[in-house]
Amino acid sequence: MSRAALLVLADGRFPAGGHAHSGGAEAAVKAGRVTGAASLEDFCRGRLHTAGRVSAALAAAAVLGVDPVRLDAAADARTPSPALRATARKLGRQLMRAARATWPSSELDALAREFPKGAHQPVVLGLAARAAGLGALDAAYCAAYESVSGPASATVRLLSLDPFDATGVLARLAPELDLVADQAVEAARECVDAGVDALPAASAPLLEISAEAHAAWAVRLFAS
Amino acid sequence: MHLDHSHDGPAAVSADARRPDGTRRALRIGLGGPVGSGKTATVAALCRALRDELSLAVVTNDIYTREDAEFLLREAVLPPERITAVETGACPHTAIRDDISANLEAVEDLEDEVGPLDLILVESGGDNLTATFSRGLVDAQIFVIDVAGGDDIPRKGGPGVTTADLLVVNKTDLAPYVGSDLGRMAADAKAQRAELPVVFQSLRAESGVRDVADWVRKQLAAWTA
């Protein structure tokens, strides 16, 4: 394997559609819950330990060879908001395209056939990591990092936040990212024997509820 | 043109000329240019001019609303199922150049749902003079500027003005009112673009979108040749 492939996959410029999504930050900014660097950090911490944790475990489990169709159903069950399920599939489809072009793989082809309109993004991410020769921990890091880097860069645009402050937020979250990635891999290993019920099911009700409201806005900068 | 591309697998990747079932996909033409230069009006006029002879569809990239898509729907230039809006996350140029995933998804969905299509027009959100389309997304691109935006734009150049397959200088009817020198714009455009074509158009004139529609027909003839 090449560890450097992780840099390619985790790069914010990897062309997989993420730039049009705020990870709930746009709704949180509008509601006055994110107003600057400190509240952005709180928001990201919350997302990391809920949506981020679940995504990281799903991605790691896909790398370990757990059936992606079962993982996709597990992701559905862990995403109450229909708007967020649609977003996860949309992003999964877009990541699938980029991953197949970058690391051609019969497993990715098979998943694309199974879900022509997209599987959940973390599941695709795990198979993409596998195709790139990366390990479960790499995929977990990638998913966990995406769960906070998306909202951080979106908030720079939404609030005209100082980009150095946003990057500082991400740096301060690094030790927690380590922790979440490690725990995700642990859960994924358990899932190999015990099934998908061993995966975490942490949820942030406000993220789910505000995603539903956001999806109905007539004027918005981000798709989610 | 990307006639030589091919890719195996259940779905086309991006610029592939063939669809998964082996048929030729639609020609994709991008329209970019600054805010207010008349991109949507040009798209609407093209739809009216071409819809009786071609099967066509439109993808719009609005910056923060569905206004452009809704304008086209309101004007009823095409049935609603032939118009799709893509959301661009505050970065219209990213969605047409650096990360074209959402736009590719939109064009493929249109071909799946209302195809077969001859032509898909992809309209960029209003942007700046550096915004160009990726060759992975479109086969040819039109850059639309207007005389009221300043007659120095062709001289200033930039990727859109210098490299677009067709440069459209729109709203020529306004030139006398805004003090724009059309002769100077034409000379500057010629200097920047050498042999690449330039069309001066006023959609209020009788000729309307005729020259641009003729150019599109030529692109399509080359695509299907």
UniProtKB/TrEMBL annotation, chain A:
GO CC aspect terms: cytoplasm
Pfam families: UreF
InterPro entries in the cross-refs: UreF, UreF_sf
Keyword Chaperone among record annotations: yes
Domain of life: Bacteria
Keywords: Chaperone, Cytoplasm, Nickel insertion
An MF annotation (GO) of this entry: nickel cation binding
Keyword Cytoplasm: yes
Intracellular or extracellular location(s): Cytoplasm
Subunit structure: UreD, UreF and UreG form a complex that acts as a GTP-hydrolysis-dependent molecular chaperone, activating the urease apoprotein by helping to assemble the nickel containing metallocenter of UreC. The UreE protein probably delivers the nickel.
Function recorded in the entry: Required for maturation of urease via the functional incorporation of the urease nickel metallocenter.
UniProt record similarity statement: Belongs to the UreF family.
PANTHER family for the chain: UREASE ACCESSORY PROTEIN F (PTHR33620:SF1)
Protein name in the entry: Urease accessory protein UreF
Source organism of the structure: Streptomyces resistomycificus
TrEMBL record, chain B:
Domain of life: Bacteria
Cell location: Cytoplasm
UniProt keyword list: Chaperone, Cytoplasm, GTP-binding, Nickel insertion, Nucleotide-binding
GO annotation, cellular component aspect: cytoplasm
UniProt KW GTP-binding keyword: yes
Keyword presence, Chaperone: yes
One function term, GO molecular function aspect: GTP binding
Domain CobW/HypB/UreG nucleotide-binding: start-end pairs: 29-199
InterPro entries reported in the protein's UniProt record: CobW/HypB/UreG_nucleotide-bd, P-loop_NTPase, UreG
Chief localisation class: cytoplasm
GO biological process: urea catabolic process
Any single Pfam family the record assigns to this protein: cobW
Assembly mode: Homodimer; disulfide-linked. The physiological role of the disulfide bond has not been proven in vivo. UreD, UreF and UreG form a complex that acts as a GTP-hydrolysis-dependent molecular chaperone, activating the urease apoprotein by helping to assemble the nickel containing metallocenter of UreC. The UreE protein probably delivers the nickel. Homodimer. UreD, UreF and UreG form a complex that acts as a GTP-hydrolysis-dependent molecular chaperone, activating the urease apoprotein by helping to assemble the nickel containing metallocenter of UreC. The UreE protein probably delivers the nickel.
Family assignment from sequence similarity: Belongs to the SIMIBI class G3E GTPase family. UreG subfamily.
HAMAP family named among the record's database cross-references: UreG (MF_01389)
NCBIfam families: ureG
Protein name: Urease accessory protein UreG
Source organism of the structure: Streptomyces resistomycificus
Taxon lineage: Bacteria, Bacillati, Actinomycetota, Actinomycetes, Kitasatosporales
